[in-house]
Specification:
GO molecular function, one term: DNA binding
Strand content: 15-25%
Keywords: DNA-binding
Strand order of the largest sheet: 3-4-10-5-8
Organism: Rhizobium mongolense subsp. loessense
Largest sheet: 5 strands, antiparallel
Shape: elongated
CATH architecture of the largest domain: Sandwich
Protein name: DNA-binding transcriptional regulator, MerR family
Number of strands: 10
Helix content: 25-40%
CATH class of the largest domain: Mainly Beta
């Protein structure tokens, strides 16, 4: 363990401290009750807060006899609300989604069923802002009557005229391998983004919305599919303009990063 940072426990250590078995800890993770961190090699790493959460889950399970869905709801009530909690760049999207769900009077199971995903996946997203495809994130925003850009915090009133190279604000990374950086701030008529796609990164499905969009590939290679039957292979220097109401999906076809400029107008994404 790193003596200069917070203590991290392996699954067996965390389970022992919580008075449960390691297999039970893994089961609760699969049910979306807890999302431990991961080391660079992919091994589970539990914080002191994770151990405390395991103890709370155990108490709800043993003393109250609650099922996983009821435990999730009970834990949510214990946590600070999205409006009152201190924001962090890694969890804002999840907090906003949870706040929207509560405002709609929906349970995790109801929204997950409507979206065609598991309740554990949705729970993970609301707690960590991670773990879903780009398409699913878009569909959730549409479901709640908002946009991905608004969920990501592009809400400031003032428009910043200039943003220096390398000083772009970055969305929380909800989708593995997809980094979205803001090239313009504030209320405006265009969503202006710089996408950085890791090898193999993709939308994992087609989505659509109102407006028009323009993309320009700076480096790498991108495959874009419109309406499931029009394929565009875009390389460095290539541009494409299309109506956003057409279903579109994409993936990085390069063995390295693909970087592109992507603009939507009006800001409906």
């Amino acid at each position: 363990m790193n003596n200069n940072g917070p203590v991290r426990y392996k699954v067996a250590e965390a389970a022992r401290l919580a008075g449960i078995s390691a297999s039970t800890a893994r089961l609760w993770e699969s049910q979306g009750l807890l999302v431990p961190g991961r080391s660079e090699t992919g091994h589970r790493q539990y914080s002191a807060e994770d151990v405390a959460r395991l103890k709370r889950i155990s108490w709800y399970r043993v003393e109250r006899g609650l099922n996983p869905a009821a435990i999730r709801e009970a834990l949510e009530i214990e946590e600070p609300s999205a409006e009152n909690a201190e924001s962090s760049s890694t969890s804002d999207i999840g907090r906003r989604l949870r706040s929207l769900r509560h405002a709609a009077g929906k349970t995790l199971e109801q929204v997950a069923s409507d979206m065609g995903i598991t309740s554990s996946t949705l729970s993970t997203l609301e707690r960590t802002s991670q773990g879903v495809s780009f398409k699913t994130l878009h569909d959730l925003a549409e479901y709640y009557g908002t946009t991905v850009s608004r969920l990501s915090g592009e809400e400031s009133e003032d428009v910043t005229a200039i943003i220096r190279s390398g000083e772009w604000r970055t969305w929380p990374q909800t989708t593995p391998g997809v980094t979205v950086q803001l090239l313009a701030e504030g209320r405006r008529m265009m969503d202006c983004h710089r996408f950085v796609l890791a090898p193999g990164a993709a939308s994992e499905g087609a989505y659509r919305h109102e407006g028009e969009e323009f993309m320009h590939v700076l480096s790498g290679r991108l495959e874009l599919v419109l309406d499931s039957d029009q394929f565009f292979d875009l390389g460095p220097g290539d541009s494409l303009y299309f109506e956003s109401r057409r279903y579109h999906s994409w993936r990085n076809r390069h063995d390295g990063e693909t970087v592109l400029l992507w603009i939507n107008t009006p800001p409906t994404f």
